[in-house]
Specification:
Radius of gyration: 21 Å
Distance between the termini: 16 Å
Number of domains: 1
Helix content: 10-25%
Structural class: alpha+beta
Number of helices: 6
Largest sheet: 9 strands, mixed
Length: 439
């Protein structure tokens, strides 16, 4: 169970900050909960004919100075190692029905502005990696080039004679064919439809996730727009524009660091008039699978405000309109302490370099302490359905103990590797993104 004093202290902001390198120094009792993971390329059915922390409880936490986002270059998508085999956790009771409630400081936050009508989308030459339409203004090269995402592992072909229903086999084969022809968007559409089919066995489902994730290295995380992409559009920088204005009207669902990431911009504050910027048109959501220590990232419309998740309802039945993006390996709460149900991102809870106090031995870790167990990012969670509203002080954060990923070692939070939580921080929106934790 999460304790009332495990959420971190820090300054909430939608920009970025200089990221301090952290040593791998850890206090065994100081581990807090987190998320992380990885995906690798798998081609499917390719045939010649895939908190001081708040000391919370009371008082307003000390603000952690943060540098302007411009000082931090856009992040890079890191390859995610497969989690170490998890030791079989001893069964334990679920968190108490009425856990302590964290009295987090209520900082006023501006409501997320409604996005304006999307700007006309640009098209690209079909085939290969999408790129901005020829003829658009080409910006000056960034002073600090963004590192390319690491290459995914070699593909592992899936046997076409695996006994799948014929319509599923046809979908997967069609996706592989379209990918081979360079039509990545249509390939993803076919494979995503197959992924959300409840008849698909677990091994084939895992292979499909890897295959779709490989497509999204180009469709989501690289500059350029595929023709007809429903998840992204482009915006042309106008005279008088600045990144704050563009974020409010065109990309209210993500952090400005994400725009830097997908547009290869080292400094998002340096915009040239006429430049075309790739912007997301849908918010991101996360589904945490406790049994496999995996978090799946999706894009799609938010669920209704009164949405509830029935334990008897298949996950796939609630994902209509959602597109799978990629997966991360995560660490979870000891003794099955990570609660299950539907959550959202708590307002004013997204922190970079927060202070934290271990609720068990009261050890205080400063914001820039490389020994801070929760790493450099914290995302607070709040329950959005009846059975989760009583849970408090839970969140997602980094770790300086990477071997805890794939195990039950946190105090209840979702623990992730540093590069993974950095990406999740960039895409999860307060009061918009869903975090669904399932067994």
């Amino acid at each position: 169970m999460a304790l009332a004093s495990q959420a971190p202290r820090g300054t909430n902001f939608r920009g970025g900050s200089t990221r301090n390198q952290r040593k791998t120094v850890i206090t065994a009792v100081a581990a807090l909960a987190v998320l992380a993971g990885g995906t690798s390329l798998v081609v499917l059915l390719i045939s010649r004919s895939g908190a001081a922390p708040v000391e919370p409880v009371a008082g307003t936490p000390a603000a952690t100075p943060a540098s302007d986002a411009a000082a931090r270059p856009a992040g890079t998508l890191a390859a995610n190692p497969q989690p170490a085999p998890a030791a079989t956790p001893a069964p334990a009771a679920s968190p108490a029905a009425t856990p302590p409630v964290l009295a987090e400081p209520q900082r006023p936050v501006a409501a997320v502005p409604a996005p304006q009508a999307p700007a006309p989308r640009d098209t690209v030459i079909p085939g290969g990696t999408p790129s901005i339409t020829p003829g658009s203004t080409t910006p000056a090269a960034p002073t600090t080039p963004t590192a390319a995402a690491p290459a995914l592992p070699p593909a592992t072909p899936l046997d076409a004679s695996s006994g799948l229903p014929s319509d599923l086999t046809d979908l997967i084969r069609a996706g592989a064919t379209l990918q081979g022809q360079g039509n990545l968007l249509e390939a993803r559409t076919k494979l995503n439809t197959a992924l959300l089919d409840r008849r698909l066995p677990a091994p084939e489902r895992e292979a499909l996730r890897r295959q779709i994730a490989s497509l999204n290295e180009s469709l989501v995380f690289a500059p350029g727009l595929a023709p007809g992409d429903p998840l992204f559009g482009t915006y042309t920088v106008l005279p008088g524009d600045n990144i704050t204005k563009i974020m409010r009207s065109q990309a209210p669902f993500v952090d400005r660091l994400f725009l830097g990431r997908i547009n290869n911009m080292a400094d998002v504050n340096k915009l040239s008039v006429g430049r075309k910027i790739k912007v997301p048109r849908q918010p991101f959501h996360l589904i945490v699978h406790k049994d496999s220590f995996r978090a799946d990232l999706y894009m799609g419309p938010p669920l209704p405000p009164d949405a509830t998740i029935s334990d008897a309802q298949p996950i796939e039945a609630r994902l209509t309109g959602w597109t799978y993006i990629r997966s991360f390996a995560v660490g979870l709460g000891e003794s099955n302490g990570t609660p299950e149900g539907l959550f959202g991102v708590r307002p004013s809870s997204k922190l970079i370099n927060p202070e934290w106090i271990n609720p068990r031995d009261r050890t205080r870790f400063a914001a820039n302490d490389p020994a801070n167990p929760i790493g450099e990012h914290w995302i607070g969670l709040e329950g959005t359905e009846e059975k989760t509203r009583t849970f408090a002080a839970y969140g997602m954060h980094g770790t300086i103990q990477p071997d805890s990923i794939g195990k039950q070692m946190s105090m209840g939070c979702v623990r992730m590797l540093a590069a993974d939580i950095a990406l999740v921080y960039e895409v999860m929106a307060e009061k918009v993104s869903h975090v669904w934790i399932v067994r």
